[in-house]
Design brief:
Shape: rod-shaped
Structural class: alpha+beta
Radius of gyration: 50 Å
Number of helices: 12
Protein name: Histidine kinase
Organism: Bradyrhizobium arachidis
Subcellular location: Membrane
Main location: membrane
Number of domains: 2
Largest sheet: 5 strands, mixed
Keywords: Kinase, Membrane, Phosphoprotein, Transferase, Transmembrane, Transmembrane helix, Two-component regulatory system
Distance between the termini: 49 Å
Mean pLDDT: 79
Strand content: 5-15%
Helix content: 55-70%
Amino acid sequence: MWNRPRFDLKVRLTLRVAAISAACFAAISAYFLITADRAAHARIDSIAAIVAKSLELQQGKVQWVAAPRADFPNLDPVAAYVMTPGLCLAVRGTDGDMLQRFCSGVPPATPPPQAFTAFYRSLFDPGREAARPVIVRGAKLGDAVVWLDPTVQTAEAWHEAGRLMLALAIALPLLCVLVYAALARALRPTHMIRTGLERVAAGDLTARLPPFDLAELSAIRDVFNHLAESLDTALAERNELTRKLIALQDEERRHLARELHDEFGQSLAAIRALASSARQTAAQDCPALLGECDGIARTATGMMETLRGALFRLRPPDVEELGLVASLEGLVAGWNGRSRGETRFAIRFDGTFETLPATISANLYRIVQEALTNAAKHAGATKVSLELTMRPEEIALAIDDDGRSADPAGKSGMGLLGMRERVAALRGRLSFEPGPNGGSALRVVIPLAAADRPVLEHAA
């Protein structure tokens, strides 16, 4: 399954705030650039109107005194009042020729970057001229033309944009730090929520979340606590049902063992007795039947040995009287005796088990019994090792074998299901995985506090 990359929520929200802030700064910068461009065009339009009016007055004065002057048009009087760096004034005749032109000097300044210059000129067309006609007594004498030097206008725009970019460079990191700190503080309870979920996932249904300041997190807290309580109740009910079902199963096993011992066992004993009697008769009257009588006796003997093994599995030794250690040692010795060298079983104990509660001892014996059966019969293991370790607050069981780790009967059969049910009823943990060097590895951990809860009864 494809895994999408995961990002920290604080980082993601901070980046989004930074992106929105940068977009706002860009919009503000665009607004200022557009406003500055419109103000510049409005200014040169007004200057062009002033220049045109001044030239009309000059021409009117010349005609009024009837003494034409050779210096018309003269832009010096109006230039003294309106000239700024980069501003150009001109008078264009009716034939298109420039009659007079006057431009102020451009002050030395740091030129803007070429990228900004190209971007600005593609959008705003700096240097565009503003023209106003010069009309005297209904006759057009020419046009008053005003424009700004493109370099100066672009540099002024860059100066304005540069101040905004400097403000952005200072404010944006500071804003990101403040937003991240605020989010980290607001989302601090999520660590507690995660810890609570991990405890529930590990089987600790007593985990509860404290109240939170945020309404959204408080809603999560209410749902979490309600879910944990519901799961705890459901698990307790399930464990009680499991206890009753397995107790019923053990009772059925005891009943079946009694029936086999009383009925089937006596029948086999009678068959052996009859075979012995028939052999004695055959030895006197018909020696040819001696082989058949011996075969019947051997078959009955084999069936009785098989019956003893079945009765032993159905009715194990009393763990309360013998103790868990002696019972497991006897179980392992019995498997070693029946294996005839094909499978070797080894067991090791670490700790003191005399004070172990009887409920845990009885169920551990059943778990080990089922695990050994799976390893020997279903997984085909040739070597099985068991280790039982007593810890301060729990008891751990480890069983490793070299059999077929993918055997369905060992993984999903009724044996493993029964072990899981017993472990769950004891509020423990069970894992069944392929071993590091092949085979299978069964791990069981049962808390000693499970003895204080309603758990499985000991099956004698």
